[in-house]
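R3H domain-containing protein structure dump, as promised
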Amino acid sequence: MGTKKTKKTKEEVSVVNLVEELSGKLLTLLGTKAKAKVTEDKENKGILIDIEAGEETGLIIGNRGKNLQAIQTLLGMMVRRETGEWVRILVNTSDWREKEEDRLKKLAIQAAERAKATGEPQYLYNLAPSQRRIIHLVLSEDSEIQTESQGEGSDRYLVINLK
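structure tokens r here:
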């Protein structure tokens, strides 16, 4: 048993080292001076990357977090290519994800309140799957409201309605 645990730890360390190396290369190729701090997320069985970007934070985040998401996707694909396995990677900078989650929670509550006040369904467009998921989770606690994703692909949207 002790051997397996040691081996697992070495594999975890090597994945963290690989992600550190790949994220550093990617940030350099993007022409930024940003630095990546990589840690293991044991709770969610993945890797957390916190990009310290200083004045380039807006560039790293991009419009509605699209650059941050693209960096995350690219790093995931690069790690998959190197290891042969999918590793859950979450990229963040300047607590952007936490602030975005708070914004989405407020948006969800406002839309639910409008649905209750008007009796009409509320529609939320242009949301990434992870953003829709946050809203679904927030409103799942409201016994008067139901949520449903509709549409296909990039035209998918969220409907918030009374039960």
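The chain has a mean pLDDT of 90.
lmk if u need the other ones
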